Amino acid sequence: MKMKNIFYLIIAVLSVTCVSCNNEWEDEQFKQLVSFKANPNSDGVTNIYVRYNSGGKVNFDLPILLSGSTMTPKDIAVSTVVDKDTLNILNYERFGERSELYFKELDNQYYSFPQTVDIKKGECSTVLPISFTLGGQDGSSQLDMTEKWVLPLSIADDPSNNYVANPRKYYRKALLNIIPFNDYSGSYSATSCKIYLDGDNSHAFTVADKSAYVHDDKSVFIYAGLRNIDYQDRSKYRVFIRFTDEKIDIQKRKLELWSDNADPTVGNAFSVGSQQSYYTMEEEPDPKRPYLIHKYITLYIYYSFEDYTISPGNRLKYQVEGTMSMQRDINTLIPDEDQQIQWN
Fold it and tell me: Which end of the chain offers a freer environment for a tag, N or C, measured as fewer CB atoms within 10 Å?
């Protein structure tokens, strides 16, 4: 009789233990915190690529995640606000007094987003839909691409305690660096593009790469000579490049070059070269991954410009000629255009 009681006692203990284990797995094992999915780069911002469309809106979905081991038991309305203070702190800590290098806050005429979005009951994620209008709300104030534009966002605290925002900076905040793109923008290898001081063709300057920024659907601009986005006077030395469909031969198509590089005291300080600038474009699938398309763009450019700001009163004339090339890899299995391009 005693052995029988011990047997029943063991069965009872095992039953309680099994029930307890099952209930543990049903309970939340961690903290449920609301976060952005916006991994920052070495500059402390998150690059997002937006197809340039001067006459309309382009949408970007910023993921919002709920951490934890269970789904939310109720609808959660997550509030997002513009966070100017964090952008100001980032700029000062990274660049100090060099304000010409600062990221600029994107003006509200170029974007819109809902104040709140819902994480639905039984789910753990949603997206914040952001609409960008790069031509401005009235279509007549195009975004100045010479600046580095950032939309600084933060998850707001919820006074009703329906959710808790993640306290960690790079989870609660998203500093979105807006990079418009078209079919020709991006980073070009420029080691074969030579920069000569006028009258001295024996010594050439070069740069490793050159960034081409969007001007419109068919045009980009680069900074002349050795200049890049870190130069304070960069806006005076833009070289615009339009990609035409006019053929020179079966592969080459004409490029149109011009500039707003003008000295108010003298006049235009830019001229196209004696040779016609042109470009070639080729596409081919990857031999091992046919869903991956390699797009090759090569520019052959020739132009001259005068530097009238680096040494006031002493105008320096430069001649630029040679090639710039870019490879853009496109993963055709990804439906969203901004994500299917494998950005460098």
Answer: N
Which residue is listed with tokens 């209930």? 23
pLDDT band of 107, cuts 50, 70, 90: very high
Using the CB atoms, write b or e for 280-299: b if 16+ within 10 Å. beeeeeeeeeeebbeeebbb
Structure tokens at 291: 């869903």
**What is the distance in angstroms between the CA of the first residue and the CA of the last residue of the chain?**
78
Domain residue extents for the chain = 34-181, 186-340
pLDDT band of residue 193 (cuts 50, 70, 90) is very high
* 34-181 is classed CATH 2.60.40.1740: yes
Q: What is the CATH number of domain 186-340?
A: 2.40.128.440
pLDDT for residue 29 is more than 60 = no
Contact 111, 131 (CB under 8 A): yes
What does the pLDDT read at residue 14? 55
CATH topology match: 34-181 vs 186-340: no
Q: What is the mean pLDDT of the chain?
A: 86
Among 233, 153, 144, residue whose Cα is nearest residue 180: 144
pLDDT, position 250: 87
pTM (2 d.p.): 0.85
